[in-house]
Amino acid sequence: MMALTQDELLAEFEGMTLIQLSEFVKAFEEKFDVTAAAATVAVAAGGPAAPAEAAEEKDEFDVILTGAGEKKIQVIKVVRELTSLGLKEAKDLVDGTPKPVLEKVNKEAADKAAESLKAAGASVEVK
Fold first, then answer.
1. 75: closest CA among 57, 87, 62, 84?
2. Whole-number pLDDT of residue 80
């Protein structure tokens, strides 16, 4: 079996629909027992640009952390799960609210992230 280069892999991903990409990510997570939440968001955000007609309908959202609440450690853990930040960077983000946790993600990813943060006790805005 010949290994694909990074460019060849990216070309393959570029040709996939979001549903196919989502299914691939799930299979990847199961196969390697990892969570690729931050990678999924990065790939989805880096996909082909929407046509100009669709530009009027908002398809990119920012998830803004507006407060950590009483369970700051839980919120830091969720921030780390949603991003590729290290412990110190995630703590600084949570301490410096209001701060964006995710930027320019699709509605589904934004809602899921906001739900996770709220479940941990944080105050969140999706813009």
1. 87
2. 86
